[in-house]
Design brief:
Length: 273
C-alpha cells in the first residue's frame, strides 16, 4: 500500500471514531496537561493509540512523533523518516462543542520535511490529502490557494494560543490585526491551514507551534500553491528548535513578513522564531 493510501485510510478510521465520541462528549473524561486550558481527553489518547498501532503494524522501523502519551519528543536525528500525529487538533473545541473546528492530522516526514500527509475534519466529512510534488486534494478534488494579493483584503487567522504566549502574540501581530482584511481565531491549526489550501483563507500566524500541529497542513498549503516559513522568513522545518509559523497563499507572504519586521525589528533572519 502506498503511503498516501495508508494515510487516507487511517484518517477515515480516526475520523469515524472522533465523530462517534463527539456525539457522546458529555460522557468523555477530560483532564488538563501543562495548564488548565490545555485539555486532554480519553478520545485524544484513543485516537493516537489507534494511529500508533496501525503504523507499528505497517511501518515497524519508522519513528513516531505525536502530541500525547509520551510521543512528544523530537527525534535526535531530525532527518529520519517519521510519522507526525495530532489525534485531535482543537481539543477545546471538541470538548465544548464548537462545531466543526477540530481535526485529525497525520503526516509522514523525511529530511525534516513532510512528504505525505492529510487532515480529516470529522464533522463535515472532509479529508484533505497531499504528496510532495503531486498537489493537494479535498475529498478527491484538487484544491488551490486564493489569488488574493492585498493584505488589506486578506482573511487572516491569528491563533491566540495559550495564556503564556498571549502577550507575545498581541505584541508581534498588532499591525496585522489592525491592517488585515478580516481576522479570525479557530484555535485549531489544521482548520486555517486546510482553509488556506482550499482558497478559503489567506494567512495563518502563530508565535509557537509544534510539528504535529502543522506538519500535514504545511504540506497541504505548499502543494496547493501557497507558502510557509518561520516568522522571520526562514524555511519551515520539522523538529528544529524554532517556534513561529507563517502560512499564506504565497501572494501576500512577503507583505506579511515586511509588516512583522516593522512591528518587531529585532526579529531578523537568523534569530530563533
Amino acid at each position: 500500500m502506498a503511503d498516501i493510501d495508508f494515510i487516507r485510510d487511517r484518517l477515515q478510521e480516526a475520523a469515524s471514531l472522533v465523530a462517534t465520541r463527539y456525539a457522546e462528549r458529555d460522557q468523555v473524561h477530560v483532564t488538563s496537561k501543562t495548564e488548565a486550558n490545555d485539555l486532554l481527553t480519553e478520545v485524544d489518547l484513543a485516537v493516537q493509540k489507534l494511529l500508533v498501532d496501525r503504523i507499528r503494524q505497517s511501518y515497524p522501523n519508522d519513528v513516531i512523533v505525536g502530541e500525547e502519551d509520551g510521543y512528544n519528543q523530537f527525534p535526535e536525528d531530525p532527518s529520519v523518516r517519521a510519522w507526525v500525529l495530532d489525534p485531535i487538533d482543537g481539543t477545546q473545541n471538541f470538548v465544548r462543542g464548537l462545531f466543526p473546528t477540530f481535526g485529525v492530522s497525520v503526516a509522514l516526514a523525511e529530511g525534516g520535511l513532510p512528504i505525505a500527509g492529510g487532515v480529516a475534519l470529522p464533522l463535515v466529512q472532509q479529508v484533505y490529502l497531499a504528496q510532495r510534488g503531486a498537489g493537494a486534494y479535498r475529498n478527491g478534488a484538487r484544491v488551490h490557494v486564493s489569488d488574493l494579493d492585498s493584505l488589506g483584503l486578506a482573511r487572516i487567522e491569528i491563533d491566540f494560543a495559550t495564556q503564556p504566549d498571549r502577550e507575545e502574540t498581541l505584541e508581534r501581530f498588532a499591525r496585522i490585526i489592525v491592517e488585515g482584511g478580516q481576522v479570525r481565531c479557530h484555535c485549531a491549526a489544521v482548520v486555517p491551514l486546510v482553509s488556506i489550501a482550499a482558497g478559503e483563507m489567506d494567512v495563518y500566524l502563530h508565535v509557537s507551534l509544534n510539528p504535529w500541529d502543522y506538519a500535514a497542513g504545511q504540506l497541504l498549503v505548499e502543494e496547493a500553491g501557497g507558502r510557509t516559513s518561520r516568522l522571520d522568513g526562514r524555511p519551515l522545518r520539522l523538529f528544529e528548535k524554532a517556534r513561529g509559523v507563517l502560512a499564506t497563499n504565497g501572494r501576500v507572504h512577503d507583505a506579511v513578513l515586511q509588516t512583522l519586521r516593522e512591528t518587531h525589528p529585532s526579529a531578523s533572519p537568523g534569530t530563533r522564531q
